[in-house]
Amino acid sequence: MWTCEQKRVEQRRGFCTGEDAERIAVVFGQGTKLIVSDAALPGPVLTVLPPSSEELKSKKATLVCLASDMASGFADVRWLVNENSVTSGVITGSAQQQANKKFTLSSYLTIDSCEWENDKVVTCEVSAGGKAASVKIKKSECSE
């Protein structure tokens, strides 16, 4: 239960705002995430893996973004190709808890192999627990 104590309190979609001297308890609605974390926690550690040469023969290129050491099991993953957000061809798994009590997850982006072959910059951005990280990759920077 979340308690708001301000001058007047108004409930809108499970959030508290307000200005009235009374106390009101607000229960968040279904699907609401409240994440409280330590500001000193580091952001996620990201690794992006390039597509395999075998897969490129099939005219597809799947890149893998591995996010580890996340403070929260709730994360937002965003893929960009040449700074343009991409949602098609994205599959992101659920976060799993690591032995160190932090979280890890994987996200996959499948694009046409020509985008990879044309040396477009692919970016994976992950935000979790109020911390964000991003990593960029392109073909010319990968060893064969």
UniProtKB/TrEMBL annotation:
Keyword Disulfide bond: yes
CDD domains: IgC1_L (cd07699)
Superkingdom assignment: Eukaryota
InterPro entries in the cross-refs: Ig-like_dom, Ig-like_dom_sf, Ig-like_fold, Ig_C1-set, Immune_Resp_Modulators
This protein's UniProt keywords: Disulfide bond, Immunoglobulin domain
Occurrences of domain Ig-like (ranges): 44-138
Pfam families in the cross-refs: C1-set
SMART domains listed in its UniProt record: IGc1
PANTHER family with a match to the protein in the record: TAPASIN
Name under which the protein is recorded: Ig-like domain-containing protein
Organism of origin: Ameiurus melas
Phylogenetic classification of the source organism: Eukaryota, Metazoa, Chordata, Craniata, Vertebrata
